[in-house]
Amino acid sequence: MTVAQKPGTVVQGTLDMLILKTVALQPMHGYGVGLRIEQISKGVFQVNAGSLFPALRRLERQGWIHGEWRATENNRRAKYYMLTDAGRKKLKSEAREWQAQSAAIARILEATSGEV
Amino acid sequence: MPIFIIIGGGLRALFAKQRAEQELDEELRCYMETAVEQKMRAGTGRDEAARETRIEMGGMEALKEQVRDVGWETRIESFLQDLRYGLRMLRKNPSFTIVAVLALALGIGANTAMFSVIEAVLLRPLPYRTAGEIARVSSTWDRNGTLTSYSSSPPDFFDWRDQNHSFSSMFAYYMGEFALTGQGEAKRVRAVMTTAGMFSTLQAEPMLGREFAAEENRKGANHVVILSHGLWQSAFAGAPDAIGKTIQLDSEPYTIIGVMPADFRFPLSASDAYVPIGFDNKVMTQRGAHYLAVLGRLKNGVTLAQANDDLSAIMAQLRKLYPDKDGKWGVGTQIWSAALVRDIHPALLVLLGAVGLVALIACANISNLLLARATARHRELAMRRALGAGRVRLVRQMLTEGLLLALLAGAASLLLAHWALLAIVRFGPADIPRLASVGLSGPVLAFAMSVTVACALLFALIPALRSSALDAAGLLRTSASPSREAGRLRGALLVGEVALSMMLLAGAGLLLRSFIGLRSLSPGFDPNAVLTMSVSVPDAHYKNSAALQSYWDRALTQLRSLPGVASVAAVTPLPLSGDDFSSSFSVAGRSVPEKDEPSAELRFATPDYFRTMRIPLRQGRAFTEADRLGAARVLLISEMAARMFFPQGDASGQKIRFGARGGYEKNEGEIVGIVGDVRHFGVDAPIPPIFYVPLAQSGMDAAAVVLRTLGPTATLTQPARKLVQAIDPDALVGEPAPMETLVSASLGQRRFYMMLLAGFAALALVLAAVGLYGVISYSVAQRTQEVGIRVALGASGSQVVAMVMRQGLRLAAAGLAIGLALALILKSVLKGLLVGVSATDPATLAITALLLLLVAVLASYVPARRAARVDPMVALRFD
């Protein structure tokens, strides 16, 4: 997993979730996915091609996203990825899981000595 | 994730590979162009933007490889690649391939054959529905705390059956034999004499007709019979109207009430007929008459221990009710399938362990060959490594080659196992249940496959890990010379091989010695040139004992007049026949409570029996023709009986009265002589105390005729049989057999175990020799240069031979030392299998070690000679 500039600080499997979320917003090609993640995260996450394409292939194989060849705004043929129904379910459960975990981690980090 | 999606995606990728590749190319190109465009939009120059993008994306091929690796199909592809490559390697080195495949095939084949024996004898469920619920119930006799199992008596059986709460049904049986008459020459019918409840316990039903009713177990009402499918076919050609007809068994009519299906077998092997036992009131009081085998089906949820407690409680009640008879009798319960193989189980497991060692030796051998070859393949591997093959990829490739080798060997091993099984069925002993049904069944094939794969992993993993561990640069730099470490590893494997072979050879040697020792034990008679033949006459033809006796007199007189017969006698039960007859007795003038009476074996014999069998007379006189009905009753006893019951040497003249426990109740006799001991139960079994009664004073309807012949026994086989059959066509005359066959059959199991272990040890020896030869040859080839220099500097041929052999013998000696230490664990492993020889027998161990050393000398001498012939000029040019 090499999502962030500092790998290891991101929980395993997060990239898959981020990609699912990104293509859930609108169908997007590979470069667009990477760019969008970088933009929304305000540059915290930079996704390089070496992580992005294997992840896309993996998600596609698992049937969570579906690729379709379309023309880009610059009239280039690109493979656009969109969420499948299974992918939508997966994203929902991943997001729920993630929120529960991050909330729990936040509580632990904010704990005062009295609580521990 | 649904499996079909994974598979579907992979399959599409496999078959539409080109398209998938094009799409990936296009996708990446699009990504790259878009990225460059973005950078240019941000103000970077075109060339600079392209350069930055390429750096960001990394190597294009590596990236594609990463994407491809997401699916499983690439693994298949690389596997197929490895397979093709492996096949090429095997074809390129035919001698290596043949040696490796053959060695491994022998190892796997031996394992497969041994496992089929285990599968057929120990693992395969008995051929009855939920056979695991069937328990064998036996009477136990407590002799100073050690329990011996016996058959059970009818009254005990009925009390157990009627009072227990643990069995849904229970039945008792014994094996009987009838002469089937009325259809030409009398035919032997093996019958199960049984009680009602047999079929419900075994959960089997007749295919025609009905099963027995409870009231058919009364004497007089029991003349009904259920035929086996085989007898129905042979006697009635499978006619459905056979039900209700009668057949003549021992010249009495029996009504056919049912026919069993073709696949029904009981007990385990096929019987010809099933007949209800006719119990009378007298039998129902004889608690000492132990002749019934009892089987019961455990109720659902009842454990063996609960059933045993239940029956023991009943037995405790019976002991109170009948204090005289049941003093030390108890009851024991075992799951039937386990009880059948209790004595065989440990021996077979020892053999399975031994054959496993053979497989290990074969694997070590091939590991060694592969290690040697891997050293030679250093440069090839280094090249692949340098071209980008990962370590995992190389290990995978080498494992695939190993697997390929193992699969070839596995296929060949099935053929070897098939032949081995043919031999086992042909020569195996008859007293191992279901041995004849061995075959390459489903479980056996699965086992063979697992052993094959396990072997592949075992022998390929070490060389694979070792050669892939080296880094590419290092590999390319070094020449093909072997590293010191690889040499050590191969040496260690070889030492292990020799050690395991030593252990197996020692085990086989010990069994062989034990067997030879048993062979040389005398059974107590001289079996050479003695022919035996069982004869049983229908009771209905002979009104009384006198009529029976005149039959035996006639038969023996006529046989004696056959040319080539030296002497003739009759006896029952015949030694080593598996039949047995015992009785409790009391000695006149000694008062002992009836329940504490001693018991001894009883044999009924004609006067010439001792002369014919060459059983020596030690004291007093043998039987004479005058010892007949009406004359004074006399007895002979064996030396063992004299020692056990008359330790003061006062046996002669004592009066014996036979007691209630046994079938010779109320008879008596005076001891007139002492004869030599006979090992009735087997050459390897304890010597029993025996009492001999004149056959003429007992009125027997069945006995074994024994003939001592002047020439070979075979020439008398048919004349003797025809002659006896002619005297009474309804008599049942068995196929004559040489007494020597019985003697050798009594050691059948031991011979079988010994032969198998010897076979495994021989395999181990050959494999170790091949291994040693391979390692030494290889190292000689590697040291050609060194040897050349030595020869150039003046080393003589014999010095070179000595140098090379020293290397081989050092390894062998280390292996021998470890093997000798390992042989000490044989002590506990072979405990039950050795008779008359200690597991640490120094002579056996020394001979074994010498044999192995001799093989080691030979295996290293051949390559040593080759080394000595090295031409220094050629050697020095050799790279």
Short description:
The complex is a heterodimer of chains A (116) and B (879). By secondary structure, chain A is α+β, with helices and mostly antiparallel strands.
Detailed description of the structure:
The complex is a heterodimer of chains A (116) and B (879). With 116 residues, chain A is α+β, with helices and mostly antiparallel strands. Chain A has one domain: Arc Repressor Mutant, subunit A (Orthogonal Bundle). Chain A has 4 helices and 3 strands. A 3-stranded antiparallel sheet of chain A has the order 1-3-2. Chain A is elongated. The model of chain A is unreliable at 1-10 (pLDDT under 50). Chain B is an alpha+beta fold. Chain B folds into 4 domains: 3-71, no CATH class; 131-340, no CATH class; 345-519 and 749-877, no CATH class; 530-745, no CATH class. Chain B has 28 helices and 23 strands. A 6-stranded mixed beta barrel of chain B has the order 3-4-9-6-8-7. Chain B has a 6-stranded mixed barrel with strand order 14-15-20-17-19-18. Chain A binds chain B through residues 29-32, 35, 48-50, 53-54, 57-58, 60-63, 69, 72, 74, 76-79, and chain B through 1-2, 5-6, 9-10, 23, 26-28, 30-31, 33-35, 37-38, 56-58, 62-63, 66-67, 69-71.
Determine the N-to-C terminus distance of chain A: 32 Å
The chain pair with the largest interface is: A-B, 23 and 27 residues
- Here the CATH topology of chain A equals Arc Repressor Mutant, subunit A
Q: Which oligomerization state do the chains in this entry correspond to?
A: heterodimer
Distance between the termini of chain B: 57 Å
What is the strand content of chain B? Answer: 15-25%
Based on CA atoms alone, the radius of gyration of chain B comes out at: 38 Å
| Spans of at least 5 consecutive residues with low confidence of chain B | none
Tell me the series of helices and strands of chain A, N- to C-terminal: HEHHEEH
DSSP strand count of chain A:
3
User: Count of DSSP helices of chain A?
Assistant: 4
Roughly how many Å is the radius of gyration of chain A?
Answer: 16 Å
**Spatial order of strands in the largest sheet of chain B:** 3-4-9-6-8-7
Major sheet details of chain A: 3 strands, antiparallel
Percent in helix of chain B: 40-55%
Task: State the major sheet of chain B.
Answer: 6 strands, mixed, barrel
